[in-house]
């Protein structure tokens, strides 16, 4: 198999939201994979942005802004620009390399981010987040979510506020084309980035799709997702680091299984 197309023949389902999946699909196709777009998570604007805008009007009162995802970067910076220029003294941090890249692409040269693991605990272990007593920290995220990061920072004496800048929902994606591709044995892998996306995907494909999972591999970026009850439905679970390079390395053992 050509080393320039290491994923030749692998059918991979991309469950990322619309707007974030296209570039990744192009990269997978360039590596020889056959991507199937099936958004299992939708990113929507807030119904009432007034509380967020009121909070961002005081963004300059904070010392550090943490972004939990690339969606938080896009939606958070969009909202922050309505309140004025980004205060130069407010540093930025990211959970995950994709989020860090999104910040760098948005003009932030210095981004605090873990370099090995890509989760809240890894960011909490970063040297820059150890001595935060008395500091004001704002976390850009979607509505709801885990409290681990906030609790960890508050335990160190920081004052933490949430800038919830978007809503997550389950999209109305038609599973019929995906099920037909599965019936043709064109799909070997499903990739998800969060437990919520995994839950949505399993619900959306229905009983017919769930019957296919025992013969399908699941690729996830974190062990917590790999331990999710719905992950147990899959024939195998593969941990991957971010991006096309991470996917390629994680799927190396599956290269010979494509049709």
Question: Could you walk me through the main structural features you see in this protein, from its secondary elements to its overall organization?
Answer:
The protein is elongated and about 55 Å long. The protein is α/β, with parallel strands linked by helices. The mean pLDDT is 90. It has 2 domains: 11-41 and 172-257, Rossmann fold; 44-169, Rossmann fold. Helices cover 33% and strands 19% of the residues. The strands form 2 sheets. The chain has a 6-stranded mixed sheet. The chain has a 5-stranded parallel sheet with strand order 2-1-9-10-11. α10 links the parallel β10 (217-220) and β11. The longest helix has 13 residues, at 70-82. The protein has 11 helices and 11 strands. It has helices spanning 22-30, 50-56, 70-82, 97-105, 120-124, 148-155, 176-183, 195-204, 206-210, 223-226, 243-250; strands spanning 11-14, 34-37, 42-44, 64-67, 91-94, 111-112, 136-142, 159-169, 189-191, 217-220, 236-239.
Major β-sheet strand ordering: 3-8-7-4-5-6
Rounded to an integer in angstroms, the radius of gyration calculated over CA atoms is 19 Å
The ordered string of helix (H) and strand (E) elements is EHEEHEHEHEHEHEHEHHEHEH
Main pleated-sheet profile: 6 strands, mixed
Count of runs of 4 or more consecutive helical residues: 11
CATH topology of the largest domain: Rossmann fold
Structural class: alpha/beta
Shape: elongated
Any idea what the CATH architecture of the largest domain is? 3-Layer(aba) Sandwich
Mean pLDDT: 90
User: What's the end-to-end separation, in Å?
Assistant: 13 Å
The domain tally reads 2
Q: How many beta-strand segments? A: 11
Ranges with pLDDT <50 over ≥5 residues? Answer: none
| CATH classification, class level of the largest domain | Alpha Beta
Strand content: 15-25%
Level of helix content?
25-40%
């Amino acid at each position: 198999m050509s080393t320039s197309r290491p994923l030749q023949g692998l059918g991979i389902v991309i469950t990322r939201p619309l707007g974030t999946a296209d570039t990744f699909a192009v990269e997978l196709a360039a590596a020889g994979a056959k991507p199937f777009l099936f958004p299992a998570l939708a990113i929507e604007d807030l119904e009432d942005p007034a509380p967020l805008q009121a909070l961002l009007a005081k963004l300059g009162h904070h010392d550090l802004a943490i972004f939990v995802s690339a969606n938080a970067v896009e939606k958070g910076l969009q909202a922050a620009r309505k309140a004025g220029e980004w205060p130069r003294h407010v540093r930025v941090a990211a959970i995950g390399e994709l989020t860090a890249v999104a910040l760098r692409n948005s003009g932030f040269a210095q981004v605090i981010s873990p370099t090995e693991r890509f989760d809240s605990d890894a960011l909490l272990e970063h040297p820059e987040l150890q001595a935060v007593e008395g500091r004001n920290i704002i976390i850009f995220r979607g509505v709801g979510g885990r409290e681990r990061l906030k609790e960890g920072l508050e335990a160190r004496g920081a004052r933490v506020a949430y800038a919830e800048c978007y809503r997550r929902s389950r999209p109305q994606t038609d599973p019929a084309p995906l099920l037909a591709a599965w019936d043709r044995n064109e799909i070997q892998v499903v990739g998800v980035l969060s437990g919520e996306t995994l839950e949505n995907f399993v619900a959306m494909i229905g009983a017919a799709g769930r019957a296919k999972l025992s013969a399908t591999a699941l690729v996830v970026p974190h062990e917590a997702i790999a331990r999710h009850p719905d992950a147990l439905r899959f024939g195998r679970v593969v941990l991957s680091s971010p991006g096309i390079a991470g996917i390629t390395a994680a799927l190396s053992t599956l290269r010979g299984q494509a049709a």
